[in-house]
Amino acid sequence: MKLKFILLALLISTVSIAQKSIDEKVSDLLSKMTLKEKIGQMNQYNGFWNVTGPVPEGGDSKVKYDHLANGWVGSMLNVRGVKEVKAVQKIAVENSRLGIPLIIGFDLIHGYKTVFPIPLAESASWDLEAIQLSAELSAKEAAAAGINWTFAPMIDITRDARWGRVMEGAGEDPYLGSLIAAARVRGFQGEDLASPFTIAATAKHFAAYGFAEAGKDYNTVDIGLNTLHNIVLPPFKAAVDAGIKTFMNSFNDLNGIPATADTFLQRELLKGEWNFDGFVVSDWGSIREMIDHGYAKDNNHAGELALLGGSDMDMESSIYIYELEKLIEENKISVAHIDDAVSRILKVKFELGLFEDPYLYCNEEQEKEITGSKEMMDAALEVAKKSIVLLKNENEILPLKKNGVKIGLIGPLAADKNSPLGNWRIGADNNTAISVLEGLKNYKGNDISHAQGVKLINKTPDGFHEEVQINTTDKTGFDEAIALAKKVEVVIMVLGEHGFQSGEGRSRSKLDLPGFQQELLEEVAAVNPNIVLVLMNGRPLILNWAAENIPAIVEAWQLGTQSGNAIAQVLYGDYNPSGKLPMSFPRSVGQLPLYYNHKSTGRPGTEGVDPGSVFWSHYGDEKNSPLYPFGYGLSYSKFEYSKLQLNKTEMTKNSSIKASFTIKNTGKVKGKEIVQLYIQDPFASATRPVKELKGFKAIELEPGATQEVSFTLTESDLKFYSANQKWEAEPGTYHVFIGTDSTSKEKMTFELN
Ligand code: GLC
């Protein structure tokens, strides 16, 4: 017994020495720094040769170079490749007085050189291991290129497909979004942040950016505490609980306060109640943008508000570096505010191992060996296949036969190698995706012919951001496409959005297939109804006509480098699709915001059952329901649910309840079904959603096989942010639904006492 105590005491003192050594190192270094050097750590510049946002006035390479050499820069972003990272790190470490290394940030949103599916697509896999692996390998490839900090995961819940950044997140549900956030943090940061293969992650954008009014990017956000705490914040709390090292604030104002200066969000909640010990970086220029918000009078005032509001590092406003000394002199901020911010930044740099070796991430041999390796490509293919959602498969037109079939491949995205890389592929080289045409040609048994039908139009106004539209003026390709459709047995049409038609700054007021694509689809269908529609898009689209008239529809999002191989393997049945929608697909834009976990309202009417009056919550010209609901996705197998039951009808607060059911694969092929469990709390101190996802599992079954599956619900699954403004589970009745998607009807009921 005594030995145990000695060992325990030794362990505690060892850990505390190790931990204390980082804290001690930080305070030692802080005590040596001048005020200007401290402020320098809070200053982040973009790479000299690249921009992912508006270039600030007066920001130029010479100024940046001098500031680097003086130790007035704490971080840089968009510096890519060992050579370039080494170059800027050398200036900071070898020219400045204290040689404090830079932390190198990058938008590693879904891969670096090897591009993985866009996050919305990965979320459709509901496969947390696959999502974690994607982040882990992306980090490995980026770290080999000198990057040690990613501005990801983006964990903004959103319900509005007009918003271009839906492609970057995990869709509409806070439960799924929280699990995915934690998985991506674990993937990026790994077990050891000082490893040369792991990087610091960023929870962004804090907060409520996905609730931009009217789905218009950067627009104002006005939501109540109920939505803020029950929908927006849970994924951010999950990221903190997963040990995330940094946060990024959001461009929007939230209920009148720009997030960049929101003391409640960043100090009271994040650094206070949640005890977050990392640092907060502003989004690009968001400190200066408080002037445009009409919240700051000028740069000096913006700097004061941002620092007091809890923003520790200034991305590309150049305000902290020029204004904070003045604010100290005017006693508007204190050195304590600066010391707190700088300590947080230095702590992450120590944890990354940058002080031990500033060139830890700068190994050119390793960069060559890891970039684009087989390990990367294989993983990118696996994750891509799991992200595909089968929306329709009438008369089992899919999977296609592998031999002797004449196939016409038509559409502007069918042979495109760029669009599948999605919007946030800034580390990758253009046109490096496997196209659908290339993927299909890897199968030698069929006769594949291709016609574009509608052209893409590439405009590159600023030289970096490609603005690609899909043709709205030229139908000259129609004849060739229709002629091809007439002479083949099956037509595969690849339609949707170009990768640059979603993402930041790409909100849309319409959600139809852009350009002449819908006309092309209808004219091809008129001559050959055997169409497999493959969609490539970064957001839910309006697909009413296709849903009515096209026998097979495959949601293939933007799947990254291995896109064409993943799609071909699904179309030929070498991978049985298992994806489920992480976001509702609307019937019309007028339904937005549209989401499954909506409130009942006081007049909830039932669709299709006319309550005999107009006085219920509905549209006179559109259904309430989505075209395809949250959690929906088909398989080449068929699954039957039976024997849903609870092991008891009453539960006390510190106990649990088991929901079980039997699932059978009544199809002809082995398949995977993501079974889902939802609850409803029909009566509470605040109005509650009609359904909330609280569990899911992937069940793989051979044809004809059955399996009993169970979920365990505990009190914590029933908690919500109540009218008492605290997280609690309230006693009363609860309903439980289990099934294939969020429309599952069969319910079971229990009482929480
Ligand atoms: C952009 C985005 C943010 C990104 C940052 C750096 O404007 O809003 O998500 O991390 O700037 O590129």
Describe the structure.
It is a single chain. The chain is of the alpha/beta class and 753 residues long. Among the domains are: 21-100 and 334-372, no CATH class; 374-583, Glycoside hydrolase family 3 C-terminal domain (Rossmann fold), CATH 3.40.50.1700; 637-752, Immunoglobulin-like (Sandwich). 30% of the residues lie in helices and 18% in strands. The chain has 21 helices and 28 strands. The strands form eight sheets. The protein has a six-stranded mixed beta sheet with strand order 11-18-17-16-12-13. Helix 20 (544-549) links the parallel strand 17 and strand 18. Helix 6 runs parallel beside helix 7 and helix 7 (174-189) runs parallel beside helix 9 (234-241). The model is unreliable at 49-56 (pLDDT under 50). Bound molecules: alpha-D-glucopyranose. Alpha-D-glucopyranose binds next to loops. Alpha-D-glucopyranose (GLC) binds next to loops.
Please describe the biggest sheet, giving its number of strands, its sense, and whether it closes into a barrel.
Answer: 6 strands, mixed
Assigned CATH superfamily of the domain at 374-583? Glycoside hydrolase family 3 C-terminal domain
Strand content: 15-25%
CATH class of the domain at 374-583: Alpha Beta
Terminal-residue CA separation: 42 Å
Residue stretches low in confidence (pLDDT < 50, at least 5 long) are 49-56
